[in-house]
Each structure stands twice: as C-alpha cells, then as structure tokens.
Amino acid sequence: MTGKEDFAARVASYQAGKSANVLGTIHIGAHDDPVLPCHARPQQTVPRPRPSIRSQALALGMGLVSAVLGPLGQFHLMKSQAAPDPTTVTMVTIGAALLAAFALTLAFRLTRQPHRIATLVGLLVGASLFHNLAHRLPGPMAQAFSPAYVQQLARSTPPDSLWFNGSYLPLIPADAPEPAPASEKPDVCPAQTAPVVTVLQTDHARKAPKASHKSVSVAPDPACKPD
C-alpha cells in the first residue's frame, strides 16, 4: 500500500467513524454544516438588561462632580506658577476632569455605554455651568480654591449664565424695566396770568366813548400744586 492509499484509507475510516479514537467528524473548509463536533451544542446568549434610570442618573452626577474636580485639580497642581499658559491650563483641566470621571465610573461600576454617554453629558453641562458656583457659593468655593480665584472668576463671568462656544448665554431672562406711571397732574403749573379786559367807557362831556384797560384777577387752579 502506497502512502496515498494509506492516507485515503485513514480519511475514509475517519469519515465513517469506524476508528476507536474517533468521537466525531469536524468539517474544515467550505461546507454546509458548522465546524463543530457532533456532541457540541450552540450556547444561547442571554441579552443583558438595560441600565436603570437610577444608574444613568448616577452616571450623570458623576460627570457633574468631575467637572468640578477638574478645575480643582488644575488649580492645586499649577498654583505655584505665577502666570501659566492658558493653553496648558485648559489641557490640564480637561485631563484632570476626564481622569476623575474615569475613576468615579470604575469605582461605581458604571462602565456600560449608556453610563459613559450620561457621564460625558454631565461633564459637558458641568463645565458650562461651573462659573456660576463663584456667584452662588462663594464661601465654599473660596475654601476649595482661594478667595482671589473666586473673586476673579466672579468679576469675569456673569451670574446665572451658560458658557457656550466662547460666549455666555443668560439662563434667566432679564426683567424688562417697568414704564414710569403717567402723572395725572402736570409737573409745572401754567402761569397764572391775569387777562387784560378792555372796557369802553363813555365820556359824558364829549359824548364819545373812551377805551380804558382794567385787569381782572383770576383765581389759581386748586388742583395745580407747584413745587
């Protein structure tokens, strides 16, 4: 028996399942049957339940907290520098906030995709509203940072606003000024002038009328009270 015949006989015995050491047939290559042993069964995958609203709200809160921890870490890391570069300050703040968010989500096991999205949303919202803490909570902010930092932040940002794309949008619309009530009485009284009345009198000696002028006094308006 040649080598090819021996190989063909072995393959035939394996396919027939007559060998004592053969438990099943595995088809390799383009075949209609799956490449699995005959005794193996496909495992049924159980879908994971959707995260609860409570856990997503917690992830959102972790993002808000991280938005405060980012500037706090940057302030204490770079407070020894007199005039740090603004670009460096921004990069350090973003890195500290992302690191805090990653650590908090790992600590609370909020690592699924909906949790990550909620954490990112909270981080963006917290970064846009962070400057309002200097107006609303100046005392705790001064203890966490420094009084000079809080005063500078309060002077450079408007209260109750949202930072977006380099500008501050007011969250609470400003009240329109109320129009001044119309005064029922005039502020300045008109001049109380006495009209001049022309009276014609007859001169009996000449039998001719003679004009004379008399002043008639006019009583002032009681409703007008000049200042």
Low-pLDDT residue spans: none
DSSP helical segment count: 7
Spatial shape: elongated
Q: SSE order in H/E notation?
A: HHHHHHHEEEE
Question: How many angstroms does the end-to-end distance come to?
Answer: 137 Å
Profile the largest sheet: 2 strands, antiparallel
Mean pLDDT: 77
Radius of gyration from the alpha-carbon trace, in angstroms: 47 Å
Which class best fits the helix and strand makeup? mainly alpha
**How helical, in percent, are the residues?**
40-55%
Strand percentage, roughly?
5-15%
Number of strands: 4
Strand line-up of the largest beta sheet: 1-2
Short description:
With 227 residues, the protein is mainly α.
Q: How does this model look, in words?
A:
Among the domains are: 1-38, no CATH class; 53-170, no CATH class. Helices cover 44% and strands 11% of the residues. The chain is built from 7 helices and 4 strands, in the order αααααααββββ. It has a two-stranded antiparallel ribbon. A two-stranded antiparallel sheet has the order 3-4. A hairpin with a 4-residue loop joins β3 and β4. α2 runs antiparallel to α3, α2 (53-78) packs across α4 and α6 (138-144) crosses α7 (147-156). The longest helix has 26 residues, at 53-78. The chain starts with a helix and ends in a 12-residue tail after the last strand.
